[in-house]
Amino acid sequence: MVMKALRRSTKPIIWLVVFAFLGTIFLAWGMNLASKPTAKGIIGRAAGQDIKTEQYQRMLDNAYYQYNQQNPGQEMTEQKTRELRDEAFNTIVSNIIFSKKRAELDLSLPDNELVEYLRRFPPDFLRNNPSFTTEGQFDQGKYMRAMNDPQLGQFWAKVEQLVRPQLEQAKLQEYVVSMPHVTDPEVKMMYEAAQDKRKVRYLVVPFITFAQKIGNLDSAEVEAYYAEHQEDYRQEDRVVLEYVTFAKVPSREDTSVVLNDLNEIRQELLDGADFNELARQYSEEPNAAESGGDLGWFGRKRMVAPFDSAVFSMAVGDVSAPVKTRFGYHLIKLQEKRTVNDSDQVHASHILLKVEASGRTLGDLRLQARQFIDDLADMPFDTLAESLGMRVARTNKVARGGAFGPMGRDKLLEEFAFNGKVGDISPVVDNDRFYAVCRIAELYPAGIPPLAEVRRQVEGAIRNEMGADSALALIEKIDAEVKSGKSLTDAAKIYKQEVKESDFFGRFEAVPGVSVDPAFHGTAFRLTEEHPISDIIKTASSYCLIELLGRQDADMEAYVAQRDSLYQTVLNGKRNQVYQLWYNDLQKKAEVEDFRYQIAGY
């Protein structure tokens, strides 16, 4: 009955206090920072400034609040929770970096500028505040009276706390992006690069064609190549993790709750309730609110097997018992039957309830994962896992920025892995499919690995070089035939090579067999009617010859008409690039440290 009541509760939560997010909104399965803080109450550091747990907590509460405001009634997934945690941390880091840079550049925001901004551009959270609306529309008069009301000083002080950092950051961004400039030749060049097209006939001789034919390599040759190219194989720090997982699958209780709900709904239907109305109210099919669960007419084998078997065995007007498919459990009502061209068809409606792991089930699984960590105090990782019938898996060697097997890329797991020692146990890791507990199994410091570890790569490089030499020898013969007067097509036929012909393509458009290659495309666009055939070109994986077949040059009359908008587009692109480079440099110098991985249950 509880789940049924929740399914009926479709009204969004009404937030009565504008700044409720400044309070303490927690998820039961969240960070729980209050109970498990770091030793000094510090969650990280940026530009030499500590990031306190309570500071992070407030930012996280704000993120949760805003998400719930923007997605009323929608359950927050754990994946989304992790994203919000990272956003909260990164926002604090950005604020610290920007604050220090503003102080350095003396880019303060005077009070009168802040007040003028609030007068002219009320933020959305104020425009949508019921106190400033009339019949659902923003009321400028109410808003201005509130700004001039001395009794609301505390309220406006909180508004200032929220808005000022955003405006100060915008002022800093404006300072940075004011530096780039764009010239007319730049705009013209960008336009031509985007609009110019070429059509070519081309021959590609891939290295791999010959590399695949090379047999076993001499050990002495491999060792000599490795000795000469050791720096090519230098690697960063890498780590191998062992891990066990606790799958987020529904429990028997979760299934039982759904079946109980469906049986209660079915009884309502048998008592005379309207099927379409209950489908709109209960069904978890995406379109149920509009369709009322109506599936229209369909023939045999149009639905998944259990559904198909059930609906074609029903009598018109019947309501089925719950039917299980891979989508969940269904109640089916057969509306009509007919035969078309000797084929049976039915008109049916359904109510779908999905079976998903409940909050209680997820909480139990997280507790099991935490209990696993606690039990490691008395038993080795492998032994404990074996005693529980759990499989211990291992990641490959992972460098920073890499994916930890099915756990994927995880910043906090990465921080744990590269700041620990062999044998250290991670906090509980979570993703959409499971919880995990990890152990650092092996650490490989940065350096040049032994030949045994990279032998396949070394042999691949040798074969590639040998393949390139053979490809060059072949295309040189074809090039000689072309220079003697033969066409590219006829010269290639002599050596049983295929010449291809492209459609018109731009400077940044792929060509079959070549993709987008600077050497190939650059040469294609330099060819002229006077010199239509290229010399031999080396791309990343082949040697090529190109013959120009046609060109479509940019329409310069159209350029004149579009020049102003193109100017702004190019300027915005350059500004974004400059700003990103500027910020990346600031962040690198800030030496950001993230200690969240030290907190169990991050």
What does it look like?
It is a single chain. By secondary structure, the chain is of the alpha+beta class. Helix content is 47%, strand content 17%. The protein contains 21 helices and 18 strands. The strands form five sheets. Strands 6, 11, 12, 13 and 14 form a five-stranded antiparallel beta sheet that branches. Strands 15-5-17-16 form a four-stranded antiparallel beta sheet. The protein has a four-stranded antiparallel beta sheet with strand order 7-10-9-8.
Keywords:
602 residues, alpha+beta, 5-stranded antiparallel β-sheet, 4-stranded antiparallel β-sheet, 21 helices, 18 strands, 17% strand, extended, disordered N terminus
Give the helix proportion (percent range).
Answer: 40-55%
Residue share in β-strands? 15-25%
Mean pLDDT: 87
User: How many DSSP-defined strands?
Assistant: 18
N- and C-termini, Cα separation: 33 Å
Q: What structural category do the secondary elements indicate? A: alpha+beta
Q: How large is the radius of gyration?
A: 33 Å
Assembly state: single chain
In DSSP terms, counting alpha (H) and pi (I) runs of 4 or more, how many helices? 21
Largest sheet: 5 strands, antiparallel
Task: Give unreliable regions as ranges.
Answer: 1-39
Q: Which term fits the overall shape?
A: extended
